[in-house]
Design goal:
Helices cover 3% and strands 52% of the residues. The protein is mainly β.
Length: 156
Amino acid sequence: MTLKQTIVPAAPQRGFVVAMRARLTATGAAGRREWLIVSRWGADGEHLSIAWTRVAARRGGAAPIQLAPYQTALAALLRMPPSGGASSFLFAQAAPDGMRLAGRFAPVEGYARLQGQGLSLRLWAEGRCTTGPRRGAWRIEAARGAWIGEFIEQAG
């Protein structure tokens, strides 16, 4: 038996809380880079939250330890075969009863796609807020960054 044959693959990730360096573009606004806090949880990873922090994400380096959600959007897993290895989620327009959120709830129309594991975790999302003064469309492209505040649950 070779060393290559004895290596056990990493357990699949079930839930996590990670920082992602995002490029945000919005209708009528200049693009910007911001740290997001992205969480996935539930028995089958069926819940996703994306929290805007209002903390600028410069290129390179780790996320600052003090990240905190300012505004949070929730999404639910679409129960269909993953497209190209990505899981797809639909954003919620109302916060579920009894669910406590960090940051202000953001009702959103749109979708998010999450792909990869570990350091290769990536997020793409498109949507628009359905209430508030800023109702324009926006797009997010984000990749996981190093952050001391992260948590990744391992299966088993």
